[in-house]
Input
Amino acid sequence: MTRVAFLGLGAIGAPMASHLSQPPFDLTVWNRTNAKAQNLAREHGVAAAATPAEAAREAEVVITCLPSSREVGEVLAGPDGILNGLAPNAILIDCTSGDPSASREFAANLASRKASFMDAPVSGGVAGAKAGTLTVMCGGDAAVLERARPVLEAFGKKIVLCGPVGSGHAVKAVSNALLAVHVWSLAEALAALKRLGIGADIALDVINGSAGRSNASQNLFPERVLTRAFPRTFRLALLDKDIGIATKLAADAGTPIPLIDLAAKLIHEAHLELGEEADHVEAAKVVESRAGVVIE
Ligand code: NDP
Output
């Protein structure tokens, strides 16, 4: 399956799409803000479509990478939507970190048109997308995954079938709930030690040689918080969405997750305080201002 359409050229979508610009793939891109699609098309010598329907028309595989399932629903529907161009037997791969129940509805709709759906959210960040080393969490049929595997391998290194449609989105939401807990709890820990007169550099040196270490302590905080660089790679608003999906999944299943519920409340407050464009690691700034210290 080499004719691919990629819709959604945001912070992570653009570097993912660029890996599909080489043979054997024949790539068409679409983005809501058309200039981004035109720029990527010019840079990589691929086609840019004017509408989602046009992008999907010739494609064997259509990939969406949008903020949430709400936007996926929007680009599927309407006269210019994907469904109006999608060929029978095509596969829609949704790399959005989305909602399992919405995905099951999309899958049923596509099945009625003899097309297939697979949720395939990713982890590894913008750096992993640029390097082509993302982890891809798939929800769908094993046979659909095998047909789509060469496309996923263009940007993914570890590809895991998590279960039926929606399972990839469930694993992604829970994984990002852990990310939220790690970022918030590490900011609290370093703020508390700072108030005791112990600097974050010494604290992280010890934590990273101890059992409390995490990607936040080993990479995110040394590179982004202590340096005060706070690059914007993954919006806090999107982390808020992800942990919200995780808490709803657990509530629907009757599973008590009080620690993650509290983290969701704190992340939501930070999102409201810092706005739509803040990076997820900037949540540490809210912890700092509440504690009256700066972790530097
Ligand atoms: P961005 O906010 O950087 O980009 C969002 C993209 O969606 C843009 O292309 C934007 O278009 C488009 N878009 C927004 N609203 C609409 C709409 N109503 N209709 C059509 N297109 C729309 O997000 P990311 O690229 O960071 O994230 C994309 C997905 O990947 C999210 O689900 C996120 O949770 C997930 N993810 C992100 C990671 C990261 O490190 N950034 C890591 C792992 C997963 P426009 O250019 O016009 O604004």
